[in-house]
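Problem statement: downstream parser choked on a complex file, so we are re-checking the raw output for the NAI run. The parser issue turned out to be on our end (a line-ending mismatch), but while we're here, posting the original submission so the record is complete.
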Amino acid sequence: DPRPILDLFRIGGRHAVVTGAAQGIGFEIAKGLAQAGARVTIADLNPDVGEAAAASIGGTFEVLDVTDVAAVAALAARLPDVEILVNNAGIVRNTPAEDTPDDDWRAVMTVNVDGVFWCCREFGRAMLARGRGSIVSTASMSGMISNHPQPQAAYNASKAAVIHLTRSLAGEWASRGVRVNCVSPGYTATPMTKRGLDTPEWRATWLGETPMGRLAEPFEIAPAVLYLASDAASFVTGHSLVVDGGYVC
Ligand code: NAI
């Protein structure tokens, strides 16, 4: 490519949809893509936080539940020019495996796996028709290791599914101009980790196993997504980019 290397990271004018971006990691991803020049749509369940989040980065907001396949299809049909899709919406339930309620298992699988697939399928179709597009999902280091003794069997399984779905779609769509990758963050300081997890005991256990000895800040995940979304990663597909302070190494 004759372009200077930093130009490869510019995504000026491209339309990016980021799911679950009202707060946390998703918001920082949306902000980073906007700073790199994208027209950003934040698609999230939560309009109260999401509207203001989108306005703060010069983006637009759409209410979306990624588990509602009809709503995902309708949004993809209304936004046929999306070239970058970031599947970031995700939930966690902390329950010992033997006590996991049916609804917790299903909720985690439905948001983290079904939701990612519905968005890939519906937005991917227009990308394939155009012969150009980049999909990046937020998986997790929990999709690579079991995180014992943390009681998150459903979450871990769901994120492993995202990593392998990424490889599968990458293989199917590689010759048709659509790249599919994921990022796998380690523990990141967001509302998700604050809910019930961020206790002194938890910090002692988990930070002790993180070579860098700290949580990630949400803005530290965004550059990995920008790389994968941009032409800088033009020969990269099916990859899981780990951003975890050395946890899984
Ligand atoms: P968070 O809970 O702070 O934010 C999640 C966002 O997703 C919220 O704005 C929420 O409204 C939205 N959301 C939830 N269900 C949705 C649905 N059905 N449809 C549309 N939007 C929905 O979470 P956080 O920590 O920012 O996590 C973002 C992603 O990163 C998730 O996929 C999570 O699994 C993943 N992740 C988080 C890590 C962490 O330590 N915080 C580590 C590794 C991965």
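For whoever reads this later: Residues 19-20, 22-26, 44-46, 64-67, 88-91, 111, 115, 138, 140, 185, 187-188, 190-193 surround NAI (CB under 6 Å).
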